[in-house]
């Protein structure tokens, strides 16, 4: 496997210890990936992943969440899983380019067909699943982008079920999603024996409605949900708030 760029690709320096990421030229990662990684690392007030943990990233895409967590959670080992072979190819080459391939590895696999060898083998699972239902809009091009945004091959119930199967008892799942899907999310988590324990809303501006939600669930956890303080992304002038810039600097 070569580290050279292929047609339609670019390399971005995303920070976080100088990590460089190979991405599709037409679309890259968003702030939701940074928020998820920071939330899972315990930087926004949630109970974060412990150092040295074995972590799965379901629907890993370019691998950006896995790479950021590898920087934020010391001694962690990560496995990124995605059905899209083109994304896994890019993520794997990014790992080699950053000399992280011994800690962060990637496999092309349908989460609905995870291997029994993965059962109960992870301390934590993180996921940025597709936000929109399969029939929510006209398919995007390229197809890889549509799969990333819409529940084409797997929905939130599939992601929750896969995470539960991969987690040891009392293991944690961290996910980022849209607030309007909260009913579906809580239903999916509880059906998979993943009890929501912490929730944090993300607002684009102070006083605006939340457009992102972060959730931490524990396999076999008790029924008690803690609501964390809101995260405000931008100031009135459009610049990032100090809280957001701080997440990029850690």
Structural summary, described in words:
With 250 residues, the chain is α/β, with parallel strands linked by helices. It has one domain: 3-Layer(aba) Sandwich (Rossmann fold), CATH 3.40.50.150. It is 27% helix and 29% strand. The protein has helices spanning 31-40, 64-72, 85-97, 143-149, 156-166, 182-191, 242-249; strands at residues 9-15, 19-24, 54-58, 77-82, 104-108, 122-127, 167-177, 194-205, 212-219, 226-227, 231-234. Strands 3, 4, 5, 6, 7, 8, 9, 10 and 11 form a nine-stranded mixed beta sheet that branches. A two-stranded antiparallel sheet has the order 1-2. Strand 4 (77-82), helix 3 and strand 5 (104-108) form a beta-alpha-beta unit. Helix 1 runs parallel beside helix 2 (64-72) and helix 5 (156-166) runs parallel beside helix 6. It is globular and about 50 Å long. It starts with 8 loop residues before the first strand and ends with a helix. 42% of the residues are buried.
State the CATH topology: Rossmann fold
The H/E string reads EEHEHEHEEHHEHEEEEH
Give the CATH superfamily: Vaccinia Virus protein VP39
**CATH C-level class:** Alpha Beta
Largest sheet: 9 strands, mixed
**Overall mean pLDDT score?**
91
Number of helices: 7
SS-derived structural category = alpha/beta
From the spread of the alpha carbons, the general shape counts as globular
The appropriate CATH architecture is 3-Layer(aba) Sandwich
Q: Distance N terminus to C terminus?
A: 31 Å
Low-pLDDT parts are 144-151
Radius of gyration: 17 Å
Proportion in helices = 25-40%
Count of spatially separate domains: 1
Total number of strands: 11
Strand content: 25-35%
């Amino acid at each position: 496997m070569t580290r050279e760029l292929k047609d339609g690709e670019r390399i971005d320096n995303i920070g976080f210890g100088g990590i460089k990421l190979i991405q599709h030229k037409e679309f890259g990662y968003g702030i939701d990936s940074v928020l998820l990684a920071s939330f899972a690392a315990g930087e926004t007030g949630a109970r974060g992943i412990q150092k040295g943990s074995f972590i799965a990233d379901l629907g890993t895409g370019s691998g950006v969440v896995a790479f950021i967590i590898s920087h934020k959670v010391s001694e962690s080992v990560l496995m990124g899983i995605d059905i899209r072979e083109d994304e896994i190819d890019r993520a794997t080459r990014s790992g080699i380019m950053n000399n992280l391939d011994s800690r962060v590895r990637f496999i092309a696999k349908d989460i609905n067909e995870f291997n029994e060898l993965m059962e109960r083998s992870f301390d934590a699972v993180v996921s940025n699943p597709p936000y929109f239902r399969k029939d929510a809009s006209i398919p995007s091009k390229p197809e890889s982008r549509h799969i990333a945004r819409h529940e084409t091959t797997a929905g939130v119930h599939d992601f929750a079920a896969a995470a539960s199967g991969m987690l040891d008892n009392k293991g944690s799942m961290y996910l980022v999603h849209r607030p309007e899907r909260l009913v579906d999310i809580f239903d999916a988590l509880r059906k998979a024996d993943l009890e929501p324990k912490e929730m944090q809303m993300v607002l684009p501006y102070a006083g605006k409605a939340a457009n992102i939600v972060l959730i931490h669930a524990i396999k076999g956890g008790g029924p008690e949900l803690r609501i964390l303080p809101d995260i405000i992304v931008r100031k009135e002038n459009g610049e990032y708030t100090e809280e957001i810039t701080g997440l990029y600097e850690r």
